[in-house]
Amino acid sequence: MSIQEKEDFAVEYPEHGLPPSSSSSAEHLDGDLLALDIRPAAERQLRAAITSARLKGLEQDLGFTDIQYQTVLAMLYVSYIPAQVPSKIILNRISRPSYYIAACVVCWGLTSALTGATNSYAGIVATRLFIGLPEAAFYPGGIYLLSRWYTKKELAFRTSIFSAGASISSACGSAILHRGFHHHRHRDSCGASPLQLRFHGYVLTPPSPSFLLPDHPHNTRWLSPAQRRLAQVRLAEDGGEADEDGDTDSVLKSLLMAIRDPKVLLFALMACCLLIGTGFANFFPMIAATLGFSTTMTLLLAAIPYVFATFLSCLNAWHADRMGERYFHITGSYGLVFFGYVLAVSTMSVPGRYIAMFLMTGGASGYTLISAWVATSIPRPPAKRSAAISIVNATGNVGTLVSSFVWKVQWGPEYHPSMFIGMAGLGLGVFLATVIRYLMARQNKILEREASVKPQIY
What we know:
GO terms for molecular function: transmembrane transporter activity. By secondary structure, the chain is mostly helical. The protein has helices spanning 3-12, 22-33, 38-55, 58-62, 66-93, 97-117, 121-135, 139-147, 152-182, 192-202, 225-239, 251-260, 262-277, 284-289, 295-323, 327-346, 350-364, 367-377, 382-403, 416-451.
């Protein structure tokens, strides 16, 4: 914060004196904004549940073929992908995003519960299709809201914390529930796996009191006027202007601005390729099953790499913020995934495959930095940033949809074709990241010549 801004703050709010430093202000916000972390955690719980349910006989219980199971996985993204852009536009335009997110969580929970209540292929496909609509508000919406509160040098680490709950949920949720539902297999008419899905809808859907969620910095209810003012000043200093939309920034104009920006297109294609490269995430328990252990042990072994990935993600993001750099932290992460694939292709030994699983999950955690890179590369106006984040995340999840059909049962237990496809996706994604870095470096040099500003490559 500049000296003039500090003096203005002290004059406007004399009872508070000079404002605290930017870092201490961010730390004050952290605890309040962690309420957002619950939403992607619950979302990932359900995705992990339907994957682990396959190990416990989902296909046998409901009479699915392999292609039908893959279709069930893919149907979520059929609605999830197109719903993201309008969802983020709504989030940016309404004055109380907390109400919107809370309502989406309730709808998501009810629909998730219905997933376990179905006992037919058509029923579970229909519920998976509808789950994607409210779920579109969670992850990209959370990233956008974080970008409304944190500066460039704070955003990556907060994004990793925001995603940490999802990683832990993906790791531990199904493993914890497995033994508790094992005895229901012969008592429930739909089998144990649908019962588990019902449990995720009823119990693991968090309560959604809107007063725990943040709105925008200028109108969040649980902040004092001085705190709201400080939050706005911090972002204005970081971006060189107020983090507000102009009077002429309509929804259509902001969307067109994002679409016409070549960086957004490149980010979107990069995210798509990298998510194809990490498509193993939706099939991780099946990959862990190739180690040859019991179902319970398989789920426990699948959990540990995700715990490792959570800590690695936070450490990588913290260092990225400290260094003010994104490219090498992202490409380095996906380099781990690539080497994990190489190791997994090279051996079927239990130690070798398990080490490969650590490399694959640890490197895939680099995706959280992509969202932060997009948010800091397109700082203003907020409406364009919102559209850009949703476009990148939506297009990226096309890669997840495609990868639903890449990990075929008949390619197991080696899954070599799946891994070769993953390596190709990673290679193309890293190439596109390199192109983005080159374009941004050239843009910064132009700005430096024209305005004598210090370049920053995020």
